[in-house]
Amino acid sequence: MKLVLIDFDGTITTKEVYTKFVLMATHPIRLVLAGLLISPAIVLYKSGMLPANKMRPLVARAAFFGVSEKSLTEKAERFVEDYVPTVLRADMLDTIRGHQENGDRVVVVSASISPYLNIWCSQMGIEVLCSDLVVRRGRFTGRYRYGDCSLHNKVEAVKRQINLSDVSHITAYGDTHEDFAMLDMANIGVYRGKAYVKTTGV
């Protein structure tokens, strides 16, 4: 089996969409209150002292704790229909279709969150491994099931889902340092459209 691993934000899309979804899906009053609640973390993030993989779970917890699964899913459907198509890279869509036509197993591996990414990947007919928001009794807890799906967690997510002994070749696509671990595990890595030179690990 040939396996294709593709990051979403900035690789399939022209820009990061996580923040856009949070802003679109969260009530303005809650945005203000959440912003106040995690303001110390925001300051640290803006100053470069708190990495994105630590910031995103805090944002998700503040924005989505207690939110109805039905309500957020409906917003995610509108987001996928109205916004996501405006930021998709045509060349990457062609790349995905090419791999599908070749019979490759295509998996999006992303720090983006499950409500909208599950929908988009289902529409594309591809698998997804992402920051999976936990649901209990019909409401989101705001927590991630396996943590933020970035850096080495991308590799762990792939190993958890896929039996790599069945894989003969891996191609991976990414665009930031959060993808390096995933790119390092691939036979062929593509970083921002160019051949990737493997690192010593992240």
UniProtKB/TrEMBL annotation:
Domain of life: Bacteria
Keyword flag Transmembrane: yes
BP GO terms, sorted: L-serine biosynthetic process
Segments crossing the lipid bilayer: 27-45
Keyword Chloroplast: no
InterPro entries the UniProt entry points to: HAD-like_SerB, HAD-like_sf, HAD_sf
Example of a GO MF term: L-phosphoserine phosphatase activity
Gene3D superfamilies: HAD superfamily/HAD-like (3.40.50.1000), SG protein - dephosphorylation function (1.20.1440.100)
GO terms for cellular component: cytoplasm
Keywords tagged on the record: Membrane, Transmembrane, Transmembrane helix
Protein's UniProt name: HAD family hydrolase
Species of the source: Alteromonas confluentis
